[in-house]
Design goal:
This protein is an alpha+beta fold and 475 residues long. It is 30% helix and 22% strand.
C-alpha cells in the first residue's frame, strides 16, 4: 500500500498529537513506504526502507518524540554512570567513533538528524552518535581509568554493567530439530524502558532485517534480530571485561553491519572481528536457518573463540568461556555463587531438563524463569534468568547499588518457522509479569532521586507477534 493512500498519527514533540494526512506534503517523497504503527502491547513497530539517507530521515521523522525522550534518558543514565558531561561524551564520540563510521551509516545518522529537524527537534548528529555509542563509553572510561589512575579517584563506578540472559538450541534439543532462540534484556530502567521499538528495515543494499531497538539507534543495542538470509542473532555481554582500542571500529557500527550484511555465521564473525575496538564486548549466539547450525562467537579484544554445532545449544548469562580471555581480559570472579555463574548453571539445567522439547513455549518459560539455584527457591533477583536487581539484596557487580532500579525489561523468542518469515514474539516490560513502580521505589530509595524526572514504571505486557513487512505492506 503506497503511503499516499494511508492516514497515520504521530505524537507531536509537545503535548497532544499531530495528525498527518499522508498526501501532497513536503515529507511524502522522503517517507515513501515508511510507516509506524500504533503502540501495541508497549511496542512501536516501524518500517523503514530505501537508501541510507532515506532510512535515516524516515527514522528521525517517524520517531522524533521518542528519540527526544530516549536521548534525555540515555544522557542522564550515561553521564551519571561514567561521571562525565554529555558535552564531553559528544567530544569523545566525535574524536574516536565518527572517523570509523563508514559513509553508509554516516548518511543514515545525518538522515535521522534531518528527519528530526523536520519535526522541530534541535538534536544533531553528534547527539545521535553519542546515543548510538552509549554502551561503549563505560569501556572507554574503564580503560582510561586503568591506564591512567589505576582505579584511584573515581567517584562513580565505571565498570561496564552486565546484561541479558539468552540461549540458542538446535538438533536433538528442540522439539522439531530446528533452531529456537530467546533473549531477555537486562538494563537500568532509565534506558531499558525505552527499548520498545521493533525496527523492520529494508535497505537498498544488504539484507532485509528485523530487530528490537531504542529510538535513535541504528543498531539493536541489546542485539536480537534476524535477516532474510536466514541469520539469527543475539548476545549477552561478557561480564567484568576490560580493554578498549581507540583506533578500532565502534561496536555499534559492526553490529549493525553484521545484522544487515551477514549471509552466514562466518560472515558475521568476519564483520564483527574486523576493526574490533573491544567496546561492548559480547558472546554472540548465532543461527543459520539454511544449515540448521548454531554458534557462539565470544568476542574479546585479544581473544576470539567461535564454537559451532548442528546438534546442541549455547547459552549466555554474561559469563566468559575462553580461559585465556578470562585470565587476561576480565576480572571475572572465581566464585560459583556470583550471579552470572548461578545463571549459567540454571541454563545448563534447563537445557538438560527440556532436551528434545525446546519450542516457543519453553523459550518463553526460560526467559521468565525465577528459580534461584543458590536458595533453590522461586525468588526473582539478580541470580535468576529473569533478572530483578531492584528486588535484590546482594547486588549485581557492575551496578552501583544492591537495590539499583534495573533488571529484565523485555524479552523476545523465535523459532525456525517464525524466523524464516522475519518474525518473533516479544514481551515488553518485565516478561514474567512482575511490575516495578517508580514512585514506590523512589520513596524507599532516595539515593535514586536523581532519576525521578525520567524513571518510568515497568509494567507487564502480553507476548505479541511481530513480522516484517514486504515493500511497505503490513503483514
Amino acid at each position: 500500500m503506497p503511503l499516499a493512500s494511508r492516514w497515520f498519527f504521530l505524537p507531536a514533540l509537545g503535548f497532544g498529537f499531530l495528525s498527518l494526512a499522508t498526501h501532497a506534503t513536503a515529507a511524502d517523497t522522503d517517507l515513501h513506504g515508511a510507516f509506524r504503527s500504533a503502540v501495541n502491547q508497549g511496542w512501536i513497530f516501524v518500517h523503514l526502507q530505501g537508501a541510507p539517507s532515506e532510512i535515516g530521515f524516515e527514522h528521525g521523522y517517524l520517531l522524533a518524540p521518542e528519540i527526544e525522550d530516549a536521548k534525555r534518558a540515555i544522557e542522564l543514565s550515561t553521564t551519571h554512570g561514567v561521571n562525565r558531561s554529555w558535552a564531553e561524551l559528544r567530544q569523545v564520540a566525535e574524536k574516536y567513533f565518527w572517523p570509523k563510521v563508514p559513509p553508509e551509516y554516516r548518511a543514515e545518522l545525518e538522515g535521522i538528524e534531518q528527519g528530526l529537524k523536520a519535526r522541530g527537534s534541535q538534536l544533531d548528529v553528534q547527539d545521535l552518535l553519542a546515543m548510538n555509542a552509549f554502551m561503549e563509553f563505560p569501556y572507554y572510561y574503564d580503560e582510561v581509568r586503568r591506564r591512567e589512575a589505576k582505579g584511584i579517584g573515581e567517584s562513580v563506578q565505571t565498570e561496564p554493567p552486565e546484561h541479558c540472559s539468552a540461549f540458542i538450541a538446535t538438533g536433538a534439543y528442540t522439539s522439531d530439530g530446528r533452531i529456537v532462540m530467546g533473549h531477555n534484556n537486562w538494563s537500568d530502567y532509565l534506558s531499558g524502558s525505552r527499548w520498545n521499538i521493533i525496527f523492520d528495515i529494508a535497505p537498498a543494499s544488504g539484507h532485509h532485517f528485523i530487530m528490537d531497538g531504542v529510538p535513535g539507534l541504528i543498531h539493536s543495542g541489546d542485539d536480537f534480530g534476524m535477516n532474510d538470509a536466514g541469520i539469527l542473532i543475539t548476545e549477552t555481554t561478557i561480564g567484568n571485561f576490560h580493554g578498549f582500542d581507540t583506533n578500532g571500529v565502534p561496536e555499534f557500527v559492526r553490529a549493525r553491519k553484521a545484522m544487515q550484511y551477514a549471509s552466514s555465521i562466518d560472515d558475521f564473525a568476519r564483520i564483527m572481528e574486523q576493526g574490533n575496538n573491544g567496546g561492548y564486548a559480547n558472546a554472540w549466539l548465532l543461527g543459520d536457518l539454511k544449515t540448521n547450525e548454531i554458534a557462539r562467537l565470544e568476542l574479546g579484544l585479544k581473544y576470539v573463540t567461535l564454537e559451532r554445532t548442528k546438534d546442541g545449544y549455547f547459552v549466555g548469562a554474561n559469563f566468559p568461556v575462553n580461559p585465556k580471555l578470562i585470565a587476561e581480559e576480565t576480572d571475572f570472579p572465581n566464585d560459583p555463587n556470583t550471579p552470572d555463574n548461578v545463571r549459567h548453571r540454571r541454563w545448563d539445567a534447563l537445557m538438560a531438563q527440556y532436551k528434545g522439547h525446546i519450542d516457543l513455549e519453553a523459550a518463553k518459560k526460560f526467559e521468565t524463569d525465577h528459580y534461584d539455584m543458590v536458595t533453590q527457591q522461586i525468588e526473582p533477583d539478580e541470580r535468576t534468568l529473569c533478572g530483578h536487581v531492584d528486588r535484590s539484596s546482594r547486588g549485581l557487580k557492575g551496578w552501583q547499588d544492591p537495590y539499583g532500579p534495573a533488571g529484565a525489561v523485555e524479552a523476545k523468542v523465535t523459532d525456525a518457522a517464525m524466523a524464516s518469515r522475519l518474525s518473533f514474539l516479544a514481551a515488553y516490560g518485565h516478561p514474567c509479569g512482575v511490575e516495578f513502580h517508580a514512585a514506590e521505589f523512589l520513596q524507599k530509595h532516595k539515593e535514586y532521586a536523581w532519576q525521578a524526572p525520567l524513571l518510568k514504571d515497568i509494567t507487564a505486557h502480553e507476548w505479541t507477534a511481530f513480522s516484517a513487512s514486504i515493500s511497505g505492506e503490513k503483514r
